Amino acid sequence: LLNASRGGCHSIVAYICERCSDTHVNHAMAELSGHPPEAHTGRSAQELMPDFGANLTPHVREVLDTGTARTSIRISAESAIEPGTPRDHLCDFFPLEAEGRIFAVGISVRDVTREYRLESEALESQAQLQRLFDAVPAQIGVFEGPEHRNTYLNAAAKASTGDRVLKDRPLAEAYPRITEGEIYKGFEKVYATAKSVVLPEIR
Questions:
Q1: Cα–Cα dist 85/29, whole Å
Q2: 186-200: b or e for each residue (b if 16 or more CB lie within 10 Å)?
Q3: If DSSP codes are grouped into helix, strand and coil, which group holds residue 52?
């Protein structure tokens, strides 16, 4: 199993129970540490890559102690791939057993730095847009999905409708009678066609 895993996954490393030292790593994990695969034998991850290894070790020990896998653990740490700059990784830790005994812990590591950076930039753009909307005196709301569930109201809309009336609720649930009018038909048409709808002034 360990030998087969060396080339199969993005990165896998197995730790022996007694010393938490590496037994096998594939080339992706070796690239992460900056040391060839054979250099990992009998040496700990903390010894070969101090920052990343220090974050791995507590999870390895927990799996060894409990026998329970840990999945989707986010670890932000420096590695040889980009020295001096922490990168984000999603790690899975799982027990390796033989004859009813855990003899090692397997680790799968996926670098998600780019995804996290894009997500962070998208959230910041959204925050900037909301700050802009909040400064607008007109009422602005954002509704999502086929139920037109409210996800945002600017300050003017909150003052007019009351934040708690609409917050996180479908439009028809918050205002049942609205389904009888042109406003709700406009919501339905926009959602169905992804095209703008302009309604005359409604009093």
A1: 17
A2: ebeeeeeeeeeeeee
A3: helix
* Whole-model pTM over 0.70: no
Helix residue ranges per DSSP H, the chain: 2-8, 27-33, 45-48, 50-66, 113-134, 155-161, 163-166, 171-174, 182-193
pLDDT, residue 203, reads 60
The pLDDT mean for the chain works out to: 83
170 in Cβ contact with 149 (< 8 Å) = yes
Burial string for 62-101 (b: 16+ CB within 10 Å, else e) reads: ebbeeeeebeebebebbbeeeeeeebbbbbbbbbbeeeee
User: Which residues is 123 bridged to in the sheet?
Assistant: none
Q: What is the pLDDT of residues 171-200, one digit of tens each?
A: 999 888 888 888 899 999 999 999 998 988
Closest CA to 64 of 24, 91, 97, 29: 97
Spatial CA neighbour of 87 closest among 9, 11, 6, 2: 11
Which strands make up the sheet holding 12-16, listed edge to edge? 22-25, 12-16, 101-111, 87-98, 70-77
